[in-house]
Amino acid sequence: MPKQTFFHLPKDKQDTLIQSARKEFSRVPLHEASIANIIKDAGIPRGSFYQYFEDKEDLFYYLLSRLSQINYEKFVSTLKTHDGDLFNTFIDSFQLMIKYLRNPEHQNLFKNAFLNMNYKMQNTLANNIYEEDQKRRYLDMVNLINVSNLSIKDEQELHHVIKIINAVTFHNLVQMFVKDLSDEETLQNYISQLDLLKRGLYKVEHQ
Fold it and tell me: DNA-binding region at which residues (predicted)?
């Protein structure tokens, strides 16, 4: 997270730095990104940068967390629209994510992120539910889910279901970029995999 000095900046200066970061992380993956390029574009000295962020990783994950917050809000809104239906919500949200990722403003940034995906990136994009504020929002979201049509025993199993679907979601987004799939191919693969989860994988013989 940024240091408090960043949040004390006027909003226009915050936005300028974030836009410069977005430009650099869209140009190259995180490990190749240059703080020198970011501060030059933002028009700030190097010393000021370190008053706001620990390093480029700190800035990168803050940028991802801001973007993931937008997706989280859309997910919750879609969940309400579908009266808590988890599978329909994930499918609709996935379509919105494809559209969002294809937007020229975001495409290269997310392409670089997904092609270099690691556990921390996935957690950040999944809204950092291990942090206190995110835990609260996660619980608020869980309470919106209609569990009456899910074959689960308790909240712990619901948590596992969400983690499994999240893993499938990120896998398909990575594949979209790795295999250069069309939107239609990406969506069809995703729907097929969620349908398998929905039906269950173990065949029960009739007595």
Answer: 34-53
**What ranges in 43-85 are assigned the alpha helix state H?**
46-52, 56-81
End-to-end CA distance of the chain: 57
Q: Which DSSP category does 149 fall into?
A: G
Cα gap 19→38, rounded to integer Å: 9
pLDDT in tens, 11-55: 999 999 999 999 999 999 999 999 999 999 999 999 999 999 999
pLDDT tens profile 61-74:
899 888 888 888 89
Residues 6+ apart with CB under 8 A from 152: 158, 161
Quick check: 173 and 97 in contact, CB under 8 A?
A: yes
Measured from the Cβ of residue 178, the count of other Cβ atoms closer than 10 Å reads 12
Distance CA 108, CA 101 (A): 9
Among candidate residues 102, 122, 111, the one with its CA nearest the CA of residue 25: 111
The residues of the chain scoring below 70 in pLDDT are 126-134, 205-207
Q: Output the furthest CA–CA distance in the chain (Å, rounded).
A: 75
**Rounded to whole angstroms, how far apart are CA atoms 42 and 32?**
18
CA atoms of 42 and 56, how far apart (whole Å): 14
